[in-house]
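Action item from last week, closing it out:
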Amino acid sequence: MQQQIPLKELKQSPHNVRQVKASKEGHWQLVASIRAKGLLHNLVVVKNGKGYNVIDGGRRLEALRQIHKDRNTLVNCVVLDSDDREVGLHANMMRENMHPLDECDVIMALVADGSEDFVSVAARFGQTDKWVKQRVGLAELSDKAKQMFRAYDFNIGVAEALTLGDHAAQDKYLEENVNYHIASIKHFMTLKKIEVKHALFDVNKHRDKLQIESDLFSDEEYITNIDEFDALQNLALLAMIEEYREKGYADAILLRDSFYWDDPECRGFTAVYDEDHETYGIADKIMCIQYNSSRFDVTIQELVMRETKEQQEAQEVEKEADEEVTPLTMSKPQEALLAGYYAHFMKNSIFENELGYVKIMKALLCHRSLGYTYNHTNRVGHVYADHQTLFPSEEYPDDYVHPLHEKCIQHHIDAARDAFESDGTTPLKYCVDLEDTVLDELFVACCLTGLGKYDFYSDTIKEIIPDFASLSRASGERGWFKPDAKWLNKYKINQIEMLEDYCFGKVSSGPKKPRIEALVKFLDKNPVFDPLGDWPQYKPQ
């Protein structure tokens, strides 16, 4: 029933669902609104002796008292027969800014007598079952946490995380920390709990024994019976060992909180990597199960006896000895050096024609971003201006000269530094102010630093960039390769003898060093050796 009631007869209901007072700013905003537009929503009241209790509209009542000094001013109200808390809750939940703890308190009151449950409350107020359960979950906050939450010392996310622990744990965390981070709170509150996802066994078969708790505010579940978890986890690990043994492995071992490389149990073993995975049969391998008891994760590593690997390497050496070896049979260090020589020459050749390669360099810069459209083997270069090293520091050619693109970059580094120290010009502003042709040159130089030594062997590169090194060889020029002492020293003695016979028509004797020096002198004046050609090569005149 609607009725106009004097302001002096209205007072706050002791059962008002809102326990958290509005901020001063919110109060004065409401006052201004009522002054300008009047009271848009009637107060909801119940008779109480000579006056009326306001069960919905407490903030509006305070605003009206601020506006009207005359307490006889009539206020539009809806009068109910009784102090219906459900009505107050429903009315307030249709408006904004009701504190979650207030919602929690009233929902708990509605289900306390057993006449309502979470499902019916959710339906009554147009909320989901989960939302109602989450609000009820806030009742698990300690008194200290509730007080701080009502004072907006932290947000609802922090409040929800705190409910994972008991009251003592909540108070301890709040006392010891000033800044509240949800992840750290969850970790602190679950120190004596284990997330279900860490189990190596079927949790559903042991839910009761594991005493699993659910997090109302997420889909996470926690095991609280740690002893039962440890026992079942251990059984699962032992089952893994037996499974690998049944598969035919020589053995399977379990390491707890250690790794094979520093565990005494694995002395005499060495790891089997991808490149030699098929070298050994399953009967030669030992499966090592490494279990971390703090992170509850498992890593697997195949091992073989070190003697087995040494025997295999010896067999490979014997196999190599049986194969025909020529000066064109390169060791891996020689292959790496050769790739460095080749890339060094190619980069210089490209930079000498830099303006013709701006578009190609831009394409190289962009194409890796399109990698999902094709096989990764078709991607070449990094092109992040991150300087791919062509030679290890101890393996630079004896007559190494820094390539042109590196000199270009260093020039601009020095010029940019001078500009910054002179007038504060930033490197970006320095680059923007360069003439277009100069910036294009610098762009190509930076892109070249991102190309590695093996990139130039790629067919993808060769499709768009001429093989300058090949052209150089065809013209009879020395071009990109000159056998120096570092290169020749990586040959076996029989290969040195072949080169001596090729260059001098005879084989010398004595220490390796002077023989290499003689070959370097000859090949420096007579560039007649091509490591990518055929053997035997043409004889020098």
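Closing note: Residues 332-522 form one domain.
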